């Protein structure tokens, strides 16, 4: 079982560049989310989606866009990267009903120079 | 906003001893709690969860205790092994409200197992 797959694993960007972090899950989970993890800050929610065509903002959404065209995929877009977006990004998914144990991908380590 | 926090950032224990990792939460409305383990370079991995209508839940070598009176959560790991070395996060959610707001994570405790 693949679970939650994130690509790429590592990325270096220059300030102002754009890129898309990919996330795919094969568990037919309705709920998908993106977190960023910074030292001493724990994981903070960026955006989430409760189903295809539905997205919403989390705690730290500024500078990021998301879309959910299919149940399986939930890409995170940085339109104009900033050094403050240097972080490790995790995608997670879960069922929406009942206990929503979120399953995480392995992460994308992003550096913005 | 309200937060979930941990008392100790680093905990060092001898191999074979029991470990207790603590977590304080401030959102009294939270009704669901999860402990995650994160090894270096990997994503968080689910360990055990507990609903607010319970005060104790046991898994394999792990026990979670919930004290709603003082809003405190703990993770007990029995007979710690080198593979238990990791950062442990507690997280809370309000699943009765839909749960779609995602999990609120604490900052994490780094558990170090000494041989």
Topology:
The complex is a heterodimer of chains A (113) and B (115).
Chain A: E1 4-7, E2 10-13, E3 19-25, E4 31-38, E5 42-51, E6 54-57, E7 64-66, E8 76-78, E9 87-94, E10 103-104, E11 108-112
Parallel strand pairs in A: 2-11
Antiparallel strand pairs in A: 1-3, 3-8, 4-5, 4-9, 5-6, 7-8, 9-10, 9-11
Chain B: E1 4-6, E2 10-14, E3 19-25, E4 32-38, E5 45-51, E6 56-58, E7 62-67, E8 72-77, E9 86-93, E10 104-105, E11 109-114
Parallel strand pairs in B: 2-11
Antiparallel strand pairs in B: 1-3, 3-8, 4-5, 4-9, 6-7, 7-8, 9-10, 9-11
Describe the structure.
The complex is a heterodimer of chains A (113) and B (115). By secondary structure, chain A is mostly beta strands. Chain A contains no helices and 11 strands. Chain A is globular. Chain B is mainly β and 115 residues long. Helices cover 0% and strands 52% of the residues of chain B. Chain B is built from no helices and 11 strands. In chain B, the strands form 2 sheets. In chain B, strands 2, 4, 5, 9, 10 and 11 form a 6-stranded mixed sheet that branches. Chain B starts with a strand and ends with a strand. The model of chain B has no long low-confidence stretch (mean pLDDT 87). The chains are: A mainly beta (113), B mainly beta (115). The interface between A and B is medium-sized, with 28 and 27 residues.
Helix and strand content put the structural class of chain B at mainly beta
Largest β sheet strand count, sense and barrel closure of chain B: 6 strands, mixed
Q: Counting H and I runs of at least 4 residues, what is the number of helices of chain B?
A: 0
Termini separation of chain B comes to 40 Å
Oligomer: heterodimer
Large-scale geometry of chain B? globular
Quick one: how many beta strands of chain A?
11
Overall residue-averaged pLDDT value of chain B: 87
Task: Calculate Rg of chain B over CA atoms.
Answer: 14 Å
Main beta sheet of chain A: 7 strands, mixed
Structural class designation of chain A = mainly beta
Helix content of chain A: under 10%
